[in-house]
Amino acid sequence: MAVDLSPKLSKKISEVDGGFYAAWSGADQPALIDSKVGAGILVLKPLGFALPHYADSPKSGYVLQGRALVGLVLSGDPKERVLLLKKGDVIALPLGNLTWWYNDGDTDFSIVFLGDTSNAVHPGDIAYFFLAGSLSIFNGFSMEVLKKAWGVGEEKARKLLKSQPGVLLIKLKERLHGIKPSEADAEGIVLNINHAHLGTRLEKGGYAIAMRSVNLPMLGEVRFSINFTNLEPNAMRMPGFFFEGAAQLIYVIKGSAHVEISGTDGKGVLETEVKEGYLFLVPKFFAATMIAGDEGMEWFSIITSQKPEFRQLTGATSLLNTLAPQVLETAFNVTPDLVKLLGPKEST
């Protein structure tokens, strides 16, 4: 069966004065289900507030613009952390955390989330469970249970349950006071791409930044790693694949590129152009290449391995370069002068 890897834009799930949440669905992109990954985008306008919630998937977020305060309660942590996120920050959120999000700035805040949906209610989609609002998980309980659990009478129980008509997001009438972020609270959880220190120059122009548990410790709690790549105008990410069988979920931050993916039986499964806002997937063991457009391209991605090993199929570090020339001559059925174009190591 042919696999559909067509890049897609997100679809809005909920939109109010305070902002919107949009997502990619496994129903629209079955490859997300197959690779058990998912994605979404949260946009908060000034004074926008995302109600307290937890998710069914560990995920990572990249701040596209603006700033926001984030309340975070980690599994086993007795206290709430308050973090300040700004453009270029990456946050790692393991399973079993509770968060709220608040735009305390004067411009829009937006963040893209990429996650591992292996244990999700519906693999391929990240689901959220809210503790307040009209979709609160408390709405699924009887009034008798809520009265007993909260230790209150029916009138107060109804007021607690029904006073917030908002769904996912609301817009506050005034600023939240007394909520202050702490740099200590963000340690090991948030890292700006400019401080990652694990960047490498790409052979054909650009750079890649790897985020692993060594520079973002919270990634040790999830089953994926993070990659941020910047391709210079018309530069190429050499054809290659992840050796250990990891899939890569890619969100295009800005710019554009020509993308080609080769799959089983030497068949091309994708040849297309991608641009800002599009999401696409490179399945495990499939080989992919990207050639940036005239403005270059930046992307944010997760790789479904904590220690991925990307192996180039061409270029100075090509996997073919590890083979003896005689082997390559036989395998490709070509003369020695053509084998030299592949750049193999000299035989001994």
Automatic annotation (TrEMBL):
Belongs to the 11S seed storage protein (globulins) family. Keywords: Disulfide bond, Seed storage protein, Storage protein. SUPFAM superfamilies: RmlC-like cupins (SSF51182). This is 11S globulin seed storage protein 2. Residues 3-158, 196-340 form the Cupin type-1 domain. Hexamer; each subunit is composed of an acidic and a basic chain derived from a single precursor and linked by a disulfide bond. The keyword Disulfide bond applies. GO terms for molecular function: nutrient reservoir activity.
